[in-house]
Amino acid sequence: MALYARKEAYIQQPAVPQNPTREPAKKRNLITKGEKFLYLSFVAVFVLCAVLVLQNQSVIQASSQEIQTIEHSIDEKVKQNTDLSVQVSELSRYDRIWAKAKESGLKPNERNVKVVPGQ
């Protein structure tokens, strides 16, 4: 019996024949059409948001530059107004007005002087 068992051990089992006519397995798409649509729509929305952010930044930059230009012109006008106020105060001094009146041949007349209240 032991001899018979040994013979059986050496007998090769018939190999399972592989099916040569069998076609190779098709690759299955890992990403479905719905997922592709979702990914593409997400990318489109992301790009749209990025473009909107850049557009808003350019509008903000243009507005900021315009504000700076206006502030600069305001500063120049304030400086001009200050200079003109100084000129007015210098030109309206009493002794200067009196000298111009004498040059023009005017003489003081006490009867023609009118006092304006509050000044």
Automatic annotation (TrEMBL):
InterPro entries: Cell_div_FtsL, FtsL/DivIC. Pfam families: DivIC (PF04977). It is found in: Cell membrane. Its main location: membrane. One of its GO terms (cellular component) is plasma membrane. Keywords: Cell cycle, Cell division, Cell membrane, Membrane, Transmembrane, Transmembrane helix. The keyword Cell membrane applies. The chain crosses the membrane at residues 37-54. It is a single-pass type II membrane protein. One of its GO terms (biological process) is FtsZ-dependent cytokinesis. Belongs to the FtsL family. HAMAP family: FtsL. Essential cell division protein. NCBIfam families: ftsL_broad. This is Cell division protein FtsL. It comes from Planococcus koreensis. The gene is ftsL.
